[in-house]
């Protein structure tokens, strides 16, 4: 009987403590808590201070064009920003230079086409990081025309606070020198 009482009495005590603490926790009163929500918005604006949009769209091979894309956070909340750059391909021809023994003249004969990037830029914007280690080949449509090219993605390493502007991703574009390759046949 003593052994049974030694086992039953602690069990009854544990059950009583659990029941009393449950009632105490469930019947406790706390102050009212109200949730406050502040509505904010995220908005960004792409600017290029050195770019003249009214300048003619005719560029010469090797020409350097001032472009300095940067993003401004015009919203009321910090923003993580990304930028993509599309580099279209330009078709170049490959020619064979042949000699016509009858006319004693050299002639260019078109052999095959290759594609190179239309322009290059020196990525070096402080605070920017490229997302992909290599280019992403794609086709873009602009004003009904399809363009093959490379799409590069970059992100700004730190969140952009309201009214803050990123550093330029690059400062200029350089048009490629597009010259057909010549093969002597």
Task: Please provide a written account of the structure.
- With about 180 residues, the chain is mainly beta.
- The chain has one domain.
- It is about 15% helix and about 40% strand.
- The protein has 1 helix and 11 strands; from the N terminus they run αβββββββββββ.
- The strands form 3 sheets. Strands 4, 5, 7, 8, 9 and 11 form a 6-stranded mixed sheet that branches. A 3-stranded antiparallel sheet has the order 2-10-6, with no helix packed on it.
- The longest helix has 26 residues, at about 1-25.
- The radius of gyration is 35 Å and the shape is elongated.
- The chain starts with a helix and ends with a strand.
Q: CA-to-CA gap between the ends?
A: 115 Å
What's the main sheet like? 6 strands, mixed
Counting DSSP E segments of at least 2 residues, the number of strands comes to 11
Give the radius of gyration: 35 Å
Q: Enumerate how many helices there are, as a single number.
A: 1
- Indicate the low-confidence ranges by residue numbers: 180-185
Q: Which structural class matches the secondary elements?
A: mainly beta
Percentage of β-strand residues: 35-45%
Helical fraction equals: 10-25%
Short description:
14% of the residues lie in helices and 41% in strands. With 185 residues, the chain is mainly beta.
Write the layout of secondary structure elements.
Layout: H1 2-27, E1 44-47, E2 64-66, E3 70-73, E4 82-100, E5 105-117, E6 119-121, E7 128-130, E8 136-142, E9 145-156, E10 172-175, E11 181-184
Parallel strand pairs: 4-11
Antiparallel strand pairs: 1-3, 2-10, 4-5, 4-9, 6-10, 7-9, 8-9
């Amino acid at each position: 009987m003593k052994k049974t009482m030694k086992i039953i009495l602690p069990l009854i005590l544990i059950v009583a403590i659990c029941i009393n603490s449950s009632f105490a926790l469930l019947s406790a009163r706390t102050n009212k808590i109200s949730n406050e929500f502040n509505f904010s918005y995220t908005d960004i604006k792409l600017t290029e201070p050195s770019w003249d949009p009214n300048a003619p769209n005719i560029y010469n091979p090797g020409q350097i064009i001032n472009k300095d894309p940067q993003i401004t956070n015009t919203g009321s909340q910090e923003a993580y920003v990304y930028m993509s750059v599309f580099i279209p391909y330009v078709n170049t021809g490959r020619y064979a230079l042949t000699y016509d023994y009858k006319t004693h003249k050299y002639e260019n004969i078109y052999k095959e086409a290759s594609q190179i990037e239309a322009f290059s830029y020196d990525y070096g914007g402080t605070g920017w990081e490229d997302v992909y280690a290599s280019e992403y080949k794609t086709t873009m449509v602009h004003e009904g025309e399809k363009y093959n090219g490379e799409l590069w993605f970059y992100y700004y390493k730190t969140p952009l606070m309201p009214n803050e502007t990123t550093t330029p991703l690059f400062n200029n574009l350089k048009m490629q020198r597009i010259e057909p390759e010549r093969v002597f046949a």
